[in-house]
Structures are given as structure tokens and as C-alpha cells.
Specification:
Layout: H1 6-19, E1 23-26, H2 31-43, E2 47-49, E3 59-61, E4 75-78, H3 82-85, E5 90-92, H4 94-105, E6 113-121, E7 130-136, H5 139-148, E8 150-151, H6 153-159, E9 166-171, E10 193-197, E11 202-206, H7 211-214, H8 217-233, E12 236-238, E13 241-246, E14 252-258, H9 265-269, E15 279-284, E16 288-292, E17 298-301, E18 306-310, H10 320-325, E19 331-333, E20 336-337, E21 343-344, E22 356-357, E23 363-364, E24 378-382, E25 399-407, E26 417-419, H11 423-431, E27 434-436, E28 448-450, H12 463-472, E29 484-488, H13 508-519, E30 524-526, E31 531-533, H14 547-553, H15 558-573, H16 581-599
Parallel strand pairs: 1-6, 3-19, 4-5, 4-10, 7-9, 9-11, 14-25, 25-29
Antiparallel strand pairs: 2-3, 6-7, 6-8, 10-11, 12-16, 13-14, 13-15, 16-17, 17-25, 18-24, 19-24, 20-21, 22-23, 26-29, 27-28, 30-31
Helix pairs in contact: 2-5, 11-16, 15-16
């Protein structure tokens, strides 16, 4: 496999000189290559082949216990001006950071192979897609990147002799001396760096072999770097699922949705509607890139080719379509292993198996008093295997986005759903998106944790400027057709602690109202918060829900919202003068409407 891209060839040569690998291997992305690398990883003890009769071509992997998750405190955005990184990122000076990392990279691949992975984020050749090249010394990364992105010869061909790409350098930071035996999961637990250089743009990652620390197409490129590219170039890189909705008459729209963690994002992405005749199909479960087409329509792709999902909590009850996707060709990281060669994790079944091998490679029983799977255990699986994958999920033109949903886990205060009357107010709602802490989290219960647009850990620049970018979108092109913006809350509880809304597949009833609003048919009424569903506008046919509960679900808790206003102001204050004046005005106007409603 050859390329005449001189910038790429020069970069690979420079990295090889610095890192000193035993050999360089250019990945072609073929099935034969994948089989060979998986067999190598199996021989090294990194991969454990699952029973082919149960899960063909699938493997379990156990990481080092010191390397089990994204490490936010070791994740850096390196810009010349610290203000560019903003208070939402850990800032470092790019010259100093590169100097630190070059010293760590020196000789770090001795005894290993440097793998060159050309990859496309999005369908190859799509006007919305972008190309990256990851250099890594980890077979685990190669095999996972093949699932999560499009890799290999086709990408090199699309890159051509002078195509642009994002440089992604990764090493586990564990060189091997001559004759030294490798470990199943090499890493450098004491020296982890996940560093982003938006001004290049490039990503330099060292020390961790896990997930988004090592699969650099994931959050590093698709969100942190892509968000900075999108700002410069006038598009949007968002932490959103993309869902196709078809009504019984056969009309279809697409919606994108941003939720903080533990708010049912993947479950919504693979929704099974309970309403007769309605169909939901998944374009993507995590990341959404949107660009305007020639007609001013915002069109979206899922830049990924696979799902990298949290396994614990995923079951036939919570997400049957995710479970059906995992039938083959999947990697399971830090799940438990059954004696008959399959994987298991908490909540997969009502009753745990009597005996397992835990993610720590230890014998486990239900009496062990510990989790069999790591709470952040993951599956990597091809999106094409999802039984509800949308037929247009790989359309290079992208799908037209008609609505954007925000939401959080709010047991009180926030109604089931409401609509923003303008794009500016919709941006405001996204900027104050929050969840309340629960008993399962450290600290006080009921404290608001803000995660604007679900991007707080992933925006690659100052979040105040990110809000300004959102506000600028309607003026980016003539005749911009902006999606309608909605806010949803599946998690409202009664005063006695009952869930007021059944959630899961029943969320299709809320999506039906959103669909009707997009069509110009859905009934709504004005409120201090925005446009609420009119009485009877949410279809509850066949749903056993009390009229009083529906009324409470759609009630505007004026006192609760007024109580939140100081917290919202404190949230904005963290970004200082970077918060756009238009959003401060929206907050002032909301407060005024709430006070007027309180005295009415």
C-alpha cells in the first residue's frame, strides 16, 4: 500500500525516528489483516476469543486495573492563548507540552510495531467527513479503530497526494528491552497525557491504551478537535445521537439529541416505539457532524462506523437493539467472562451466573462483594449490525436535521417537553442543560450539574465562544433552515417519589408531538419556559397514566425555576465575559417572565 502524500510520509518518518519502533506497518483495513492481528493479540494474551458458536469473531479484553477509563484530569487543550482553551479545559502551553511529550516518546516504541492507520470520520468522500491518521503501537487500537472508523487503503486513496488530515499520535508508553516478555495490557499508568493542539490541529496521546484515550478518532478528534475546526469553518461538531422517525403515513424526519451521561442517550438512539405504525431508526448514538448544504439545510452524518458503548446496564429490557447488535464481530473490554466462553455484565440478566471470571481476571461469584464487570466496561461493535440502523446512515450527503433535543435528569422543575420559540432561546436552553445529582453520585443529592449541550468535557475551546458559535449559525449561509429546538425530561417524579413518565419506548409519544410540531400541526400553548404541549397534544392512547400525572408532567414549576436562576447565573459566571450578551439577556427575560407568572 503506497501513498505519495509527502506530508504524511515525512510525519511517519519523524515519529519513527523519535519513537524507535522495530518496524512500521501500514494498515490496509482488510478482513485478512484484521484476522491476523486478532490472532497475534490472542497469542499475546491480550485478546480472549469468545465461543464462536455464541459470538463469532468476538473477543474479551481485560485492561490493566490502572487504565480503565477516560482520564479527564490528564486531558489537555494546548493553545498559545490560555483564554482559547477556556475554563472548561485543562490548558497547557503547546511548546512546553510538546517538549514534555517528546521526551516521553523518545524510544517509547522499542520492541514494538508502529501501525499507521489512515481513517475517515464519516463516509469516505463525504463533504461532511474528515480524514485523520493515527500512529500507534497498540494492536488493540488498530482492531477497535477498524470497527469505530473506516480505515485503510480506500482512505489513503481519498487522501491523495496533497489531502489534509489530522495527525493523531498514540503510544502505550511501554518499550520492550531485547528479550523482555510483554504483558497482556501494556500501559504507562504513571505518565498519561491526552493532549490536543487545535492550532495544528493534532492529538498526542501517551501512556493509556484505553478507549477514548487511545482510539483518537473518538472524543479527541470527533469532538475536541472537530469542534475547533467547525468553529473556524462554519459547521457543527456535536455530542448528539441522530435518529430517523417515520410516521404511519410514511413521512420521515431526522432529529439530533444531546443528553448528559446517565440520561438514556443510547436507549433513545435505538428506540423501539410503542405507538402503532411508528418507526425509529438509528443513524448514530454518540456524535453528530452537521454542515449546511447548498439550499441552507443543515445536514448531519455520524462520523463513526461503530458503537463504543457502556456495557453495564445494557440489557434486553433497557436496550434490546443494542444487545442484538453485539451478536458478532465485537470487542468486549473489562466485561466478565462466563465459563462457557461468553461475556456478562451487571444487569445483563436478572440473576447473575453462579460463577464468572471478573474483569480483574479473578474467580467471581455473586457472594464476592464486588462488581464482576468494571462499571465502565465497554463494547465495540459495528453500527451496520444494528437491527434498526437507518438506511441513510452512510449517505455521504448526510441526513436533514429537523429538530434538536436537549434534556437532563431532573426529578423536579423541568416539564416532560417544551419547544424553544427561537434558535437563540434554544441555544440558551442548551447552555443551561443540567442533571440533578442522585444518591449514586458523590456529594449532595439534588445539586444541579451543568453540562451544556452535553459538551462540557468535550468542547475543544472556550465554551463561551462555543455558545457564540451556536448563535452565529443562522447567519452563516443565506436562507439557513435551522432545526427547531426542544427540551425534554423523561425523569420527572411525583412528591412521593414515583416516576411520572414510563420512559423507554413510550418516549415515542413525545417524539410524535415533536414530529407534529415540525410539520406545523402539533398543538402548543405559550408558557414562561416556551411552547408546551396543549392539553391532549401528547398521544396517551393505550397508556395507563393518570390525568393528574400528565398535568404535573407538563406543569411549569415557577417557584422551582426561580430557585434555579442564581445557580444558572453562577454557571454562566464561570465563563466570565465569554458568555454572549444575547444569552445573558435570555436569562434576564426568563426571570422576568417567571416573576410575572408568579404574581399573576
Amino acid at each position: 500500500m503506497k501513498t505519495n502524500n509527502q506530508r504524511l510520509l515525512k510525519w511517519v518518518a519523524e515519529v519513527a525516528e523519535l519513537c524507535q519502533p522495530d518496524q512500521i506497518y501500514w494498515c490496509d483495513g482488510s478482513a485478512e489483516e484484521n484476522e491476523r492481528l486478532c490472532a497475534q493479540a490472542e497469542a499475546a494474551g491480550t485478546f480472549i476469543r469468545l465461543d464462536p458458536a455464541k459470538r463469532p469473531n468476538s473477543f474479551a479484553v481485560f485492561s490493566d486495573p490502572a487504565d480503565v477509563a477516560r482520564v479527564e484530569d490528564r486531558t489537555f487543550v494546548c493553545t498559545t492563548d490560555p483564554r482559547e482553551a477556556g475554563p472548561n479545559n485543562n490548558w497547557r502551553d503547546p511548546v512546553e507540552m510538546k517538549d514534555t511529550l517528546r521526551k516521553l516518546y523518545a524510544g517509547c516504541m522499542r520492541g514494538r510495531t508502529l501501525y499507521v492507520i489512515p481513517f475517515s470520520m464519516g463516509p469516505i468522500g463525504s463533504p461532511i467527513a474528515h480524514i485523520g491518521v493515527e500512529l500507534t503501537d497498540s494492536i488493540y487500537v488498530v482492531v477497535n479503530m477498524r470497527i469505530m472508523t473506516r480505515i485503510g487503503a480506500e482512505v489513503l486513496a481519498a487522501l491523495g497526494d496533497d489531502g489534509d488530515f489530522v495527525e493523531c499520535l498514540h503510544s502505550v508508553g511501554a518499550p520492550l528491552a531485547p528479550g523482555q516478555k510483554d504483558v497482556p495490557w501494556p500501559c504507562n499508568a504513571n505518565n498519561k497525557y491526552i493532549s490536543h493542539f487545535p492550532e495544528d490541529p493534532s492529538i498526542w496521546s501517551f501512556g493509556s491504551g484505553y478507549g477514548g484515550n487511545a482510539l483518537l478518532g473518538k472524543k479527541c478528534f470527533a469532538l475536541r478537535i472537530a469542534s475547533t475546526m467547525a468553529r473556524r469553518q462554519g459547521w457543527m461538531a456535536e455530542h448528539m445521537l441522530i435518529l430517523g422517525l417515520t410516521n404511519p403515513a410514511g413521512k420521515k424526519i431526522y432529529v439530533a439529541a444531546a443528553f448528559p451521561s446517565a440520561c438514556g442517550k443510547t436507549n433513545l438512539a435505538m428506540l423501539q416505539p410503542t405507538l402503532p405504525g411508528w418507526k425509529a431508526e438509528c443513524v448514530g448514538d454518540d456524535i453528530c457532524w452537521m454542515k449546511f448544504d447548498a439550499n441552507g439545510q443543515l445536514r448531519a452524518i455520524n462520523p463513526e462506523a461503530g458503537f463504543f458503548g457502556v456495557a453495564p446496564g445494557t440489557s434486553m429490557k433497557s436496550n434490546p437493539n443494542a444487545m442484538r447488535t453485539l451478536y458478532a464481530n465485537s470487542i468486549f473490554t473489562n466485561c466478565a467472562l462466563t465459563p462457557d466462553g461468553d461475556v456478562w455484565w451487571e444487569d445483563m440478566t436478572d440473576t447473575p451466573p453462579p460463577k464468572l471470571t471478573s474483569w480483574k481476571r479473578e474467580e467471581w461469584t455473586p457472594q464476592s462483594g464486588s462488581k464482576a464487570a468494571n462499571p465502565n466496561a465497554r463494547y465495540t461493535t459495528p453500527a451496520r449490525q444494528c437491527p434498526v440502523i437507518d438506511p441513510a446512515w452512510e449517505d455521504p450527503a448526510g441526513v436533514p436535521i429537523s429538530a434538536i433535543l436537549f434534556g437532563g435528569r431532573r426529578p423536579s422543575t423541568v416539564p416532560l417537553c417544551f419547544e424553544a420559540p427561537t434558535w437563540q432561546y434554544g441555544t440558551f436552553l442548551g447552555s443551561i442543560q443540567a442533571s440533578e445529582t442522585t444518591a449514586a453520585q458523590a456529594g449532595s443529592v439534588g445539586v444541579l450539574r451543568y453540562d451544556p449541550m452535553a459538551m462540557l468535557p468535550f468542547c475543544g475551546y472556550n465554551m463561551g465562544d462555543y455558545f457564540a458559535h451556536w448563535l452565529s449559525m443562522p447567519g452563516r449561509v443565506p436562507n439557513a433552515k435551522m432545526p427547531r429546538v426542544f427540551y425534554v425530561n423523561w425523569f420527572r417524579k411525583s412528591d412521593d417519589g414515583r416516576w411520572l413518565w414510563p420512559g423507554f419506548g413510550e418516549n415515542s409519544r413525545v417524539l410524535k408531538w415533536i414530529f407534529e410540531r415540525v410539520e406545523g400541526r402539533g398543538q402548543a400553548m405559550e408558557s414562561p419556559l416556551g411552547l408546551l404541549p396543549a392539553p391532549g397534544a401528547i398521544d396517551t392512547t393505550g397508556l395507563d397514566i393518570a390525568a393528574d400525572d400528565m398535568a404535573e408532567l407538563l406543569e411549569v414549576d415557577v417557584a422551582g425555576w426561580l430557585k434555579d436562576i442564581p445557580a444558572i447565573r453562577a454557571h454562566y459566571a464561570k465563563f466570565g465575559d465569554a458568555i454572549p450578551a444575547a444569552l445573558q439577556q435570555e436569562l434576564n427575560d426568563l426571570e422576568a417572565r417567571l416573576k410575572a407568572a408568579q404574581t399573576a
